[in-house]
Amino acid sequence: MKITDIATREEIGRFTERNDWKAIGYVAFNWAGVALIFACVALWTNPLSILAGIALLGGRQLGFAALMHDCGHRTLFSTAHANAVIGQWLCAYPILSDQPRYAAGHQKHHAFAGTEEDPDLPNYQAYPISRASFRRKILRDITGQTGWKSLRATWRRGKREIGKTPWSGNALAGHGIVNGAMFAVLFAVGEGPLYLMWPVAYMTAYMLIARLRQVAEHGAVPDLFDIDPRANTRTTLVRWWEKLFVSPFHLNYHLEHHFQANVPCYNLPAFHAFLESRGVFEETEFPHGYGELLNKAVPA
């Protein structure tokens, strides 16, 4: 099914409209969340608060990934320039990513979803998997093994690109500038060592949360090789606290995103309701929470 089969161009236009104030609010909210987490740990520094802070920072790092994703689609802000600059410097660089590279690969995922040409298939094709296998994956995530692999790949790519682009466009330089600024701010207020929570969260919590997101979006779906998004993609209905970790900024509405990729994330809940009102989801199941989802993707 195509979106044009059930909606007019004018109806679709209601949901694809960009709102810069909402976009700025989302980016500011995520950075404010990062600042609040660091502030709370600084005020109540103990092993438990540090562990909680690392877990929460992993959720905010996924928040940056979600915002970078929308900027890569050029949907978060109304102009290409704002999407490129803010998406790169305030969303991608903090999590050691590079928006142009990410967007190029992600467009291929959209073009080939539902086929064997989907470049993201290795992330979820094996599901459903056994609990023993899933435990091994989780162990690799929380012990930093997955993060170390990602970090090495980022470093190697960056080294290959040195000298090929202006310094301001080099990903490694951007990573260093933004993360250096984060450390400088914490150092200036006497809390420099707390910066270590950020890379630790990236190496552990973020990798685990990113895995859960990938499984939620395309793992153990009705038919991974059917081009109908209702068969190869999933939306999960989440609780408020799950949004802190696995589905910031309406990231859980992934089926709607595959129906119409130029709908900004802040319009996805309304777009979901619209599609539901048109009977698009009459035979579609939506797991309620990630516990129910994992029972499907990782059965006993």
Account of the protein in words:
This protein has 300 residues and is mainly alpha-helical. The protein has one domain (3-297). It is 62% helix and 0% strand. The protein has helices at residues 9-16, 20-43, 47-72, 80-92, 99-112, 131-142, 145-161, 171-188, 197-203, 205-218, 229-232, 240-243, 254-259, 268-277, 290-297. Helix 2 (20-43) runs antiparallel to helix 3, helix 3 (47-72) runs antiparallel to helix 4 (80-92) and helix 3 (47-72) crosses helix 10. The radius of gyration is 19 Å and the shape is globular. The two termini are 34 Å apart. The model is unreliable at 165-169 (pLDDT under 50).
Task: Please give the structural blueprint.
Layout: H1 9-16, H2 20-43, H3 47-72, H4 80-92, H5 99-112, H6 131-142, H7 145-161, H8 171-188, H9 197-203, H10 205-218, H11 229-232, H12 240-243, H13 254-259, H14 268-277, H15 290-297
In short:
Helix content is 62%, strand content 0%.
Please state roughly what percent of the residues sit in beta strands, choosing from under 5%, 5-15%, 15-25%, 25-35%, 35-45% or over 45%.
Answer: under 5%
**Morphology call:** globular
Q: Percent helix among the residues?
A: 55-70%
Overall pLDDT score: 93
Rg, Å, rounded? 19 Å
Tell me the span between the first and last alpha carbons.
34 Å
Which consecutive residue ranges, at least 5 long each, have pLDDT under 50? 165-169
Q: Assign the structural class, choosing from mainly alpha, mainly beta, alpha/beta, alpha+beta, or little secondary structure.
A: mainly alpha
Number of strands: 0
Major beta sheet summary: none
How many separate domains? Answer: 1
